[in-house]
Amino acid sequence: MKKVIFTLALIVGEIFLPLRAFSQNSLDSVLVNINNNNKSIVAYNQFLKAEKVRFNTGLSLNDPTIEYDYLKGTPADAGNQIDFTAIQSFDFPTVYGKRKEVSRASIDRLGILEKEFRQQVLLEAKLIYLKLIYLNNFESQLNKRNANAERLLVALKVKFDKGGVSYLDINKAKINLSLIQNELRAVLDDINESTQQLIELNGGFELEVTDTIYPIVEKLAPMEAIFNKAKIGNFAIQNIQKGQQISEKKEELNKALALPKIEAGFRYQSILGQTFNGFHVGLSIPLFENKNKVQAAKQETIYFGLLEESHINKLRNELEALYNKAKSLKQGMTNYNHLFNEMNSEELLNKAFKLGEISNIEYFMELQYAYLALENYLKQQRDYHLVISELKKYEL
Q: 94: closest CA among 286, 252, 301?
């Protein structure tokens, strides 16, 4: 047991304690760059601009109608007839106000969609960034493992030449070194892949994440406070609420469209040398054109109301799962920290060597336990920050 404690203390003293420092500027910088450079955000914004123009179309009066008829009479003494009509049709006056309300609400909804899309992109970037911090830490640990394994192999070869160890010990050291180097190559591949993903999100502009320090996480607020904040900042729910508002506006618009339409204009007629001119007035009663439209809008409003309830329930369940996971991971990290902080690596190291408790090969074996503990800690640390980012994504 002393051997395990000694090895853990030694490795933790070299690898773990430096991770307690902090700097957040890199993360902020990365998110700002991606917010400005991401091609999907730029393309989506351009699409929304086109949609805004579309929603502002059709709010004015209908186009006027102009008709001209020239009728040649037969026989010749019958004379010719000319008819000219200019007509402007009008919806009932309240229709225009209702159309503008629907248009404004629809444009507001586009703003919500833009924020939701941007939030998703930034969250993806943040999760990749946090993964790179973990990979950088893991690479650093593997580099130290690799250096230790190389030193151990050299020491064992010297002892082997003097007859102090067997060839089996040499093979164990070689296998251990090979495994570490293979794992190191895999981690470097993961770093390159994640970096390329981040560069893609940054519109192709170069980004390099060398941080080994996670952002500071404030103490978790009570679950209900987090839920209330997330409910307000959840753009999916805001989108549904705006959709319900638009349906209500459409219901009012369709009721207004059921009112009579008016035509007004000027008419001129010339026949047999006589001319007639005057006003044209017409009335259109929409008995069939808007049938069931009001009822359809009512059903759509009910649908959005039910959909909002469903999303709120889903949000609560997701947040509760993330919240419980975050608390569990935090407790695991705290347990590791308590264990590591209670160790005195230098004292245990001197005592172990003075008592002759640790040989080279024993040290090699005990390293596996220490590395496993550190790997578990690093993974818990990574998962904790990933969960916190998911939990607070509505703040992006």
A: 252
Q: Which helix (H) or strand (E) holds 85?
A: strand 81-90
379 contacts 135 by C-beta, under 8 angstroms = no
SS3 89: strand
The CA distance from 347 to 188, in Å, is 35
Would the pLDDT of 23 be above 70? Answer: no
Within the chain, residue ranges assigned H as helices are 2-15, 25-37, 39-55, 93-161, 167-201, 223-233, 235-257, 293-341, 345-355, 360-391
> Which of these, 39, 54, 323, lies nearest to 200 by C-alpha position?
39
Residues in the chain: 396
DSSP bridge partners of 71: 81
Three-state secondary structure string covering 256-267: HHCCCEEEEEEE
Highest mean pLDDT among 169-173, 264-268, 380-384: 380-384
pLDDT of residue 11 exceeding 60, the answer is no
Q: In the prediction, which pLDDT does 310 show?
A: 93
* Closest-CA residue to 114 (of 179, 175, 46, 39): 46
Rounded Cα distance, 85 and 276, in Å:
12
Q: 241, 334, 251, 337: which is closest to 296 by C-alpha?
A: 251
d(CA 118, CA 112): 10
The total number of structural domains that make up the chain: 1
Report phi then psi at 56, rounded to 5: -90, 5
Joined together, the tokens standing for residue 337 give 């920290």
Burial class (CB in 10 A: 0-12, 13-18, 19+), 274: exposed
Q: What is the DSSP letter of 103?
A: H
Note whether 208 and 305 are within 8 A (CB): no
Distance (Å, whole) CA 61 – CA 96: 8
pTM (2 d.p.): 0.82
Q: Which residue, 334, 339, 315, is CA-closest to 384?
A: 334
Mean of the pLDDT values across residues 229-240?
91
**Which structural domain, as residue segments, surrounds residue 310?**
2-395
Q: Is 232 in contact with 64 (CB distance < 8 Å)? A: no
* Cβ atoms within 10 Å, residue 373: 19
Report the CATH number at residue 131.
1.20.1600.10
How far lies 49's CA from each of 123, 243, 386, in Å? Answer: 24, 19, 34
| Both tokens assigned to 317 | 């369940």
